[in-house]
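Example for tutorial group B:
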């Protein structure tokens, strides 16, 4: 492993401060940003598509009812849930790199074709194309979790996952903040689909060049960083990859209390998140009286706060876990409680806002959504805690269930909110979201855990909580330059 006749037993390897694991997470963050931009662009675009007076009037207007609009907004998730479980299986079988590549390629092409599709086939063809986008993006999260399980050292797991999934907020902020301006520009509302689609194809090229399934497949990783990752995970990644042929313990997974609680928490989080994400532009316009330009900017504000807080929480989590100030289980529950229970209070306050209290409503929305970033340090990374060998499969299962709620939530809004300018009807929606969020975190606090489950690896004792390993053989340290040689 090391030159100059040194023993294979090494006392101290000095990994680079910013290594290939960070590069991989940055690229995945960029890809997740593009994916989310393509996922949420319709939430604002539909406002311009249904009201040409609020945007560039030279582009088509569609006279859709609120019920049809609700179907359009939920159609993405009809496809999305169908490929969650297959996505986890395929990512485990073929690797996360190729599955992310296929996901982003198909989704980007569909985004670029959306303006043409809606012009040719109206809302029915639009729904069909959104279903196809959902089918392609369904493998995205399982693939990312599969990659993180191989790239993230144990005590960096939560922070690296947070940095990666912060891409969702970057995509949302970029899309919501720019879509109103784009809709009013000379390119009109079609540009809201063209730009993220083009960026998605750009990401595909970057991923082909620099993406890697694991440290063992990365030709540019240093000796020190590879040893750091493999030692922390307690096994060589090549051996972990051979475990991909192990049969998935479905029965043990579905009878695991830790997993079932995790699924319930994920469902609750998804309900609240997507209710607000898909409905904020309409709420801003009809209840708070904001035009589409300020609508888009104000809609982006909560996700800007979420993005900033997510980046800030990474170092905080590193301090907590690397310093052993809290166990992983307590840390997960603490961050999850911040992200799901504090918003319950703000949602109740939001339910009583009126047009005269528009500024306060924006503040409450910002707090409600912004604190959701702490969930990346809570339940979002818990799949890897419970079973790193099956992380992609676990999140495919919980994400599938969670996105059933993503389908139902907009439909519930369409059923309850028959008059979008009526604050009383919106009050019911906020109450429902708050109640679901409260129950979800209550279950996680009472029954959740970060302990590695016995069905992940039958050789481990039940309830073993994986810790970072500090291997210190009796040999002299090598230099920083030697430790950072690539393998």
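The residue assignment follows.
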């Amino acid at each position: 492993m090391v030159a100059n006749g040194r023993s294979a037993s090494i006392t101290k390897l000095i990994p680079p401060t910013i290594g290939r694991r960070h590069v991989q997470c940055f690229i995945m963050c960029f890809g997740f940003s593009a994916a989310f931009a393509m996922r949420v662009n319709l939430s604002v675009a539909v406002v311009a598509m249904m009201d040409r007076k609020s945007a560039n009037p030279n582009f088509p207007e569609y006279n859709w009812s609120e019920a049809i609009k609700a179907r359009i907004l939920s159609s993405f998730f009809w496809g999305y849930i169908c490929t969650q479980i297959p996505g986890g299986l395929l990512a485990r079988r073929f690797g996360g790199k190729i599955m992310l590549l296929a996901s982003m390629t198909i989704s980007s092409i569909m985004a670029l074709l959306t303006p043409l599709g809606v012009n040719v086939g109206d809302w029915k063809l639009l729904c069909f194309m959104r279903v196809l986008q959902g089918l392609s993006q369904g493998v995205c999260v399982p693939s990312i979790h599969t990659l993180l399980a191989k790239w993230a050292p144990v005590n960096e797991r939560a922070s690296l996952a947070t940095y990666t999934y912060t891409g969702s907020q970057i995509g949302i902020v970029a899309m919501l903040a720019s879509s109103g301006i784009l809709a009013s520009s000379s390119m009109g509302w079609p540009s809201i689909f063209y730009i993220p689609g083009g960026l998605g194809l750009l990401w595909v090229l970057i991923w082909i060049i620099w993406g890697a399934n694991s440290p063992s497949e990365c030709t540019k990783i240093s000796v020190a960083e590879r040893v750091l990752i493999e030692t922390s995970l307690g096994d060589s990644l090549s051996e972990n990859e051979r475990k991909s042929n192990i049969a998935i313990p479905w029965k043990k997974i579905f009878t695991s209390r830790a997993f079932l609680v995790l699924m319930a928490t994920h469902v609750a989080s998804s309900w609240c998140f997507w209710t607000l994400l898909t409905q904020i532009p309409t709420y801003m316009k009809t209840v708070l009286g904001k035009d589409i330009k300020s609508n888009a900017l104000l809609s982006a504000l909560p996700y800007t706060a979420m993005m900033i807080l997510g980046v800030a929480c990474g170092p905080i989590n590193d301090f907590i876990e690397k310093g052993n100030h809290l166990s992983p289980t307590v840390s997960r529950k603490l961050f999850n409680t911040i992200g799901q229970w504090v918003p319950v209070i703000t949602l109740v306050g939001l339910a009583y806002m009126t047009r005269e209290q528009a500024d306060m409503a924006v503040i409450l929305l910002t707090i409600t959504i912004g604190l959701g970033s702490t969930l990346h340090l809570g339940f979002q990374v818990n799949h890897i805690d419970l079973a790193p060998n099956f992380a992609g499969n676990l999140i495919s299962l919980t994400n599938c269930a969670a996105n059933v709620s993503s389908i139902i939530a907009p439909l519930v809004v369409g059923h309850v909110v028959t008059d979008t300018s009526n604050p009383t009807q919106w009050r019911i929606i906020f109450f429902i979201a708050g109640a679901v969020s409260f129950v979800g975190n209550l279950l996680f606090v009472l029954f959740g855990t970060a302990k590695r489950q016995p069905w992940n690896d039958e050789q481990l004792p039940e309830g073993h909580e994986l810790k970072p390993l500090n291997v210190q053989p009796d040999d002299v340290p090598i230099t920083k330059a030697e430790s950072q040689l690539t393998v």
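Residues 96-137 form the longest helix (42 residues). Compare this with the pattern of hydrophobic and polar residues in the output above.
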